[in-house]
Design goal:
Blueprint (H helix, E strand, L loop, with lengths): L1 E7 L2 E6 L11 E8 L3 H8 L15 E8 L11 E4 L2 E2 L5 H4 L19 E2 L18
Antiparallel strand pairs: 1-2, 3-4, 4-5, 6-7
Bound molecules: zinc ion (ZN) (2 copies).
The site of one zinc ion has 8 residues, from helix 2.
Length: about 140
């Protein structure tokens, strides 16, 4: 599929990337139908926000249709229309259960003290590939 990929400051390309797959039992694969550019994306493109890794797919937010879910997913199923929020959260840690999703203990691969994880951001936030992909 096509995706908007960060290659460097001022160097954003529409590349061919692999189809996403279920990697963890709590994953869902969403066929994106729309995504948006926000001000944070512009910081990455201009270089005024550091730490972007070459090859990261941009895009924090999107909407789409669930295509597949892992065996532990209970709240959505294939065919559901969903909003993909920029903030990544596990949904089951103490912070998530209290509604503080941006403080999730498990979402950031850098560990509990690494801060909020979000899609399409720099290394300290994941780096997790984002939502600008899959259109057409
Ligand atoms: Zn954003
Ligand atoms: Zn959590």
């Amino acid at each position: 599929m096509k995706a908007v990929v960060f290659h460097g400051v001022g160097d954003i390309r529409l590349d061919e990337v692999p189809e996403p797959t279920i990697q963890d039992p709590t994953d869902a694969v969403v066929r994106l139908t729309a995504s948006a550019i926000c001000g944070t994306d512009l910081h990455f493109v201009r270089g005024s926000f550091e730490g972007m890794e070459k090859g990261t797919i941009l895009g924090h937010e999107g909407v789409g249709i669930v295509e597949a879910v892992g065996p532990m997913v209970r709240n959505v199923r294939p065919g559901d229309r969903v909003v993909v929020c920029s903030t990544i959260a596990c949904g089951s840690c103490a912070y998530c259960r209290a509604g503080y999703f941006a403080q999730c203990d498990n979402a950031n691969p850098g560990g509990r003290r690494a801060g909020t994880a979000f899609f399409g951001g720099p290394k300290p936030t994941g780096a997790v590939n984002g939502a600008m992909r899959g259109f057409g």
